[in-house]
Design goal:
It is a single chain. This protein has helices spanning 10-31, 39-61, 72-83, 88-91, 98-122, 147-163, 168-193, 197-203; strands at 67-68, 131-132. It has 208 residues and is mainly alpha-helical. It is globular.
């Protein structure tokens, strides 16, 4: 294993303020008594609040990486995959039917809740760009190597349904491509940096 990177944690410096802002946003949304929301929508907001709170805690607690993929194109793709779901409500066609809105709210709730479970299992190994710290094999990582990406995609499908579709479907398609690429870049780095990753990959499922 290579020596751990002792440079400043750029991800922590840049992303913790963003995630804190999303924590504040979801708290304010919950406290807005004038908003007309279903129980599923409230549940989705609670799940999102838990998700971003866990992200902040894990980013603040994480240690230095033993390896980082520093290619600019990889960083750009990882950032786009992380933040493109926020474009979905802006590009949606609007006017989702009652059935689509209900299904969308349910998918957001389930997807974000399971994403939070994945974060808790990943612990301080969390990163937006491909980085190596320790091998995570608990929770959903016992069976699949990229559950966080899968569950985030489930939530993104829900957002598209809530938004009424339209151009939001293109964002969803692009997100799927980016998540698969991101997973492959991560696996390449982890195979190089983490002893035991090859054996772990041989007994679990991934995108390839």
């Amino acid at each position: 294993m290579q020596p751990r990177d002792r440079r400043p944690d750029v991800g922590r410096l840049l992303l913790v303020p963003v995630f804190l802002g999303l924590v504040v946003f979801n708290v304010s949304h919950l406290l807005d008594r004038d908003a007309d929301r279903s129980a599923l929508e409230v549940g989705g907001t609670v799940a999102a609040l838990a998700f971003y709170t866990v992200l902040v805690v894990m980013y603040l607690r994480r240690g230095a990486a033993s390896g980082t993929d520093r290619r600019p194109a990889v960083w750009l793709a990882a950032g786009a995959a992380t933040f493109s779901p926020f474009l979905i409500p802006l590009l949606g066609a609007g006017g989702a039917s009652t059935t689509a809105a209900g299904l969308g709210s349910a998918l957001v709730l389930v997807g974000v809740a399971l994403s939070t479970w994945s974060l808790l299992s990943l612990r301080t190994n969390i990163s937006v760009v491909p980085q190596a710290r320790e091998l995570s094999t608990s929770g959903p990582y016992r069976w699949f190597r990229h559950p966080l990406y899968v569950f985030e995609y489930v939530a993104a499908i829900g957002l598209v349904l809530l938004s009424g579709g339209g151009l939001a479907w293109l964002v969803l398609l692009g997100l799927g491509v980016l998540q698969v690429l991101r997973a492959r870049w991560e696996e390449k780095l982890l195979r190089e940096e983490l002893p035991g990753y090859a054996d772990y990959a041989a007994r679990t499922r991934g995108f390839s």
